[in-house]
Specification:
The protein has ten helices and 17 strands. The two termini are 71 Å apart. It is of the alpha/beta class. Helices cover 41% and strands 13% of the residues. An eight-stranded mixed beta sheet has the order 2-4-5-6-7-8-9-10, with no helix packed on it.
Length: 498
């Protein structure tokens, strides 16, 4: 079935072998020229490395645009080092000593794969080969007919060769394969007849129906997952991902061990639930606002590019017309220069022609300047800052009144959960020292910053230390710290920026 290298000297794929292989597959004259001038392996699309006693696949990363690779009739034991051959369409690994199908994940364009005459005992690890149309895995060690079910995932598979495997001796082999791969056209070098197809469906419908149901469910789940991913990507572009629900609050609260302890105190659980409700409401409002502004921004960008295309197209058309008119008008002058009866006449005509060329250059330059002016006017209508800046970074962090809580001691109000303020700016991380207390932290979440304060920080610290933020370019316009206010509001002037 396969070869042994006990009596054969194994070879490795080195530069010399590759150079020789490339030269051999070209015509003799081109091969000599390539040999003398050198070969850029990036331009090679086909490579034949059969019958060379190769033991290990290696050194093929240089063939970036390879579409066809022959490695048949060697002594290869493992499929490897093919990751960079992403354009491969045709791969022949027949007549080797391969035992496991692997190393094919990146070959997503592969259409024709031959693993004929190897030592493979299971069909696996081929999920990414969705373009596969022809597959030959005859004369291997496939014993379980159920392995054929794996091939149902290849919707474009039309030609299959399984002949020579142990399971081919089973009586219902052909009907089983045809039933499970209904779009198969050729099996073991023979065309699948309509009669065979009908018999296969009739005999194995009790197996196929549940399979199709499971596949339909899996497809529906996949489509749902892809739809969610698409939606999430859209939300990320709008900088509002995970704000349409309780994800943000839950993820922050899940890591808050202190808040979990506080929940056992009388009345605190109700406060936390109210806080969560208000927090989620704020997130959803911000989410809706962000999406609305993103859609407006997208419409503005689309309108701009449409206008840009119109301006450039008009410029090109006008320039082409000016050049065409120039050629038509000066065709006679060129003829006069060519047929001038004297040198002086030719020089005179040539001077006039040069003057026309200069005038043409000035006309085209004027047109270019006009286009630049039109584009400049359009650029001025593009907002310098993202539309979401209109919100001026306003974010409400809702806190239940705590003056009646046992946590209210000695005139100080302590937050049961982390206090957060959202800033529409672009820092990554900033530790703010408020003087004598544990620091606040600005944590970047995409386009937003969350200012968190650990529990135990008095609300009065916010007003007392607002200078710390002014020094960093953020002005606290207004702040409230009285416990009778249900909502603690801070308005940040975003025009100062960072």
């Amino acid at each position: 079935m396969s070869q042994s290298y006990n009596s054969i000297k194994p070879n490795v794929i080195d530069d010399e072998m590759l150079q020789k292989a490339v030269e051999e597959q070209w015509p003799e004259d081109i091969g000599r020229l390539a040999k003398s001038e050198g070969i850029d392996l990036k331009n090679v699309t086909e490579l034949q490395l059969g019958f060379r006693n190769i033991l290990q696949i290696d050194n093929l990363w240089q063939f970036e645009n390879l579409t066809k690779l022959q490695l048949d009739n060697n002594i290869i034991e493992k499929i490897e080092a093919l990751e960079s051959l992403v354009h491969l369409v045709w791969l022949d690994l027949s007549f080797n000593n391969i035992e496991v199908i692997e190393g094919l994940d990146t070959l997503v364009k592969l259409q024709d794969l031959s693993l004929y005459n190897n030592r493979i005992s299971k069909i696996e690890h081929m999920d990414t080969l969705q373009e596969l149309q022809i597959f030959s895995i005859g004369k291997n060690n496939l014993t379980a007919l159920e392995d054929v079910v794996y091939l149902r995932r290849f919707k474009k598979l039309r030609t299959l060769n399984l002949t020579g495997n142990p399971f081919c001796e089973e009586e219902q082999y052909v009907l089983f394969v045809v039933a499970h791969i209904p779009d198969l056209v050729y099996l073991d070098f023979k065309r699948v007849s309509d009669t065979t197809r009908e018999l296969a469906v009739s005999k194995y419908h009790y197996l196929i129906d549940p399979l199709e149901h499971e596949e339909a469910q899996a497809l529906a789940q996949l489509e749902e997952k892809l739809a969610k991913q698409k939606e999430l990507e859209y939300h990320k572009r709008a900088f509002v991902e995970y704000l349409n629900g309780s994800f943000l609050f839950d993820s922050l609260y899940a890591e808050d061990t202190e808040a979990a302890k506080l929940a056992y105190l009388p009345g605190v659980d109700d406060l936390l639930q109210a806080y969560r409700k208000d927090f989620v409401s704020v997130c959803e409002n911000l989410f809706n606002y962000g999406l609305k502004e993103y859609e407006k921004r997208e419409a503005e960008v689309s309108e701009f590019y449409e206008g840009l295309h119109e301006v450039l197209t008009a410029n090109q058309q006008e320039g082409s017309k000016i050049i065409l008119d120039f050629e038509n008008q000066n065709k006679e002058r060129l003829d006069e220069i060519h047929h001038a009866t004297s040198y002086n006449i030719a020089e005179s005509k040539r001077a006039e022609y040069n003057e026309d060329i200069l005038q043409l250059s000035e006309t085209l330059m004027t047109l270019e300047i006009q286009t630049a002016d039109q584009l400049e006017v359009r650029f001025k209508h593009i907002p310098v800052k993202p539309p979401i800046q209109d919100a001026r970074g306003l974010f409400f962090c809702c806190c239940t009144p705590l003056h009646s809580s046992p946590l209210h001691k000695e005139g100080r109000t302590t937050l049961p959960v982390s206090l957060m303020f959202c800033l529409n700016v672009g820092l990554s991380l900033l530790r703010v020292d408020l003087g004598g207390v544990r620091p606040w932290t600005l944590i970047r979440c995409n386009k937003f910053l969350f200012l968190t304060a650990e529990r135990g920080i008095s609300l009065t610290c916010i007003q007392a230390d607002s200078q710390s933020f002014r020094e960093r370019g953020v002005e606290v316009v207004q702040s409230f710290h009285r416990t009778e206010y249900r909502s603690l509001c801070m308005v940040w002037d975003m025009h100062l920026g960072f």
